[in-house]
Structure formats: C-alpha cells, structure tokens
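Mods, move this if it's the wrong board.
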Amino acid sequence: MNHFDRLERMASRTVDWLNAEEFTIIPMRKAINGRPDRDPTRPIIDGKGVFEFVSVESGLQLGVRKSYREANDLRALQVGRSPILSVDRRIFNDLAGDPIENAIVRQGDFVSFPKAENLPDFDVVSAQPDGHSRIVIKLVSLGKSFIEGA
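Not the wrong board. Structure tokens:
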C-alpha cells in the first residue's frame, strides 16, 4: 500500500467521524407486478456515511438566435438539488476485512436515516466508486416510505 492510499483512508475515516450520519440500506427486488419487495439474498447494511444535497443546474438550449451566426443560448432555467450519500467501502466488509457475500448496492434499494427525522426515505438511483476508498450513492426521494412486513 502506498502512502497516498494510506493517507486517503485516514482522511476518509476522519470525514466519517466528523460528518457521518447513520443510515440503513434495505436491499429490494422488483416483483412481476413491479412492486418492490425485500431481497432475502442480500443483507441489510447499517453504516455511517456523509449525506448531502448537491446543487444541480441543468442548462437548456433555448434556440434563440440574436443574429445569423450566433449559437444557441445555454441557460440554467432550473436549479435543483440532488441527494448524494458517500460511504466508505469498509462498510461492505466483515470484521476480518473480507467482503460480505452479496453486500452490494443496486438501483431500487431503499435507504433510510433512522436518527435524522428531518430526512425522508430514499431509493437508490446508482452507486459508483469515486476512484479512491469511497462509494457515491445517488438517491431520489419518491415521497413514499417502505415498511418491512406491511
């Protein structure tokens, strides 16, 4: 392990210690009728990660040309917020440091923040590694709440 990897892991642990919120990822699978149901083949993952709302501006081509040789205008007509959860890859390992079998995050999984009452429940849109020791999970709030066993 080189020095950069060691320092990056130390920084990741410090970020989690200062800014992390507890979360629970409940793995879901789609049924034939399209309704999600708990996936029994994958474990429920409890951990801590950095949750944030990132400001997102989408530029739209208006097609307004002021004169003959000008290009289309790109303006940010809409500004939204994109919820993101950044977690350390260590939460997908057991106590010995070995990867937990089938402990992966997939699109459609359910994410809740049990100690943050002001946050709604989210569904996973995508989960991508950031190139270092963290995984960035993009979320979407559908305004629904999954209650296991209901």
